[in-house]
Design a protein that fits this description.
single chain, 195 residues, alpha/beta, Rossmann fold, 12 helices, 4 strands, globular
Length: 195
Amino acid sequence: MQAIVATLDACVLFQGRLTDLLLNIAEAGAFEPVWSDAIHEEWMRNLSVKFGIPADRIAYRRGEMERAFPAANVTATTALISSVQALCTTAPQRKDAHVMATAISAKAEVIVTHNIKDFASSALAKFELSKVRPDSFCVQLLEAQTEKVLNGVRAHRASLKRAAFAPAGYLEYLAHEKSGLPKFAAALEPYSDRI
């Protein structure tokens, strides 16, 4: 089964725990991540403003993402962004039109976002796109690409050097509000001996 192409919104890339898990799953081949310079600029700006993280640390994180996924950065034309904005009915939808335009340009199938309301279903349907929250996205991936997702989960768990978790503790870590993946953690329980 071919891996789906998924556009990761800035609100998803803003969360370090979630981003790390998703990119481990992507590295295992379960999906192909897509983003843009504008998406990067948004999560980077928000990390700096909200947490005061030094610019060089944020830039390093972006650089590592680009190095790991050199084909992930996609540029949408200004004309396409304007066309998408014309389909939007609210200011938040117009603000996030660049995300939808990135997805269209990349021939993505889904936009992974917490901001579901920022993407009008009618506009998405015109381009055969869907929107999904990260927790549900991970559950869907587990169902469709079980072995690849489990490989990614194992790699993610192994990467958590500051907190080496037993499987049960790792599932609690995923279910925690900072990770925001309670459904995914529950879906992984039957596989706890393989993570």
